[in-house]
Give the backbone structure.
Amino acid sequence: MRLARMVAVCSLLVLTLWPVPASAVDKVVVRGDCVAGPSTWKLVTRQFDASTLLIRVEINGGVAGQEWSMFVTDNGDKVIRNAKTSGTGGFVRWVRKTNDRAGADDVVMSALNRDSGETCGGSLSFQQN
């Protein structure tokens, strides 16, 4: 009986510690500093459903009431192209859904603060699930 319990415990430990293949990533986040100003940016891409990605861009730390132009592409296709005025703390956010393209989705973003000339830019690669 004691041997059976030891075998069972050892089996559970082996199964628990056995390496498991990594699953596909369902969210990628990159961050950075903007140029010629105090702001920071964050670019987030995550799986929304089986065929859709959600792309979010946030800029924070600038001055409230300034206009930011945003341009985001996914594998060269336009996802976001518009302007917004920053709110409290200079915070501004864009969120869009886009098709999950075959293979890797290469998401590129660039932003320009039309009032201060501050620029932000970054990119990420999101592997299809």
The beta strands are 27-33, 40-49, 52-60, 67-74, 77-85, 92-99, 105-113, 119-126. The chain has one helix and eight strands. The chain has one domain: 22-126. The radius of gyration is 22 Å.
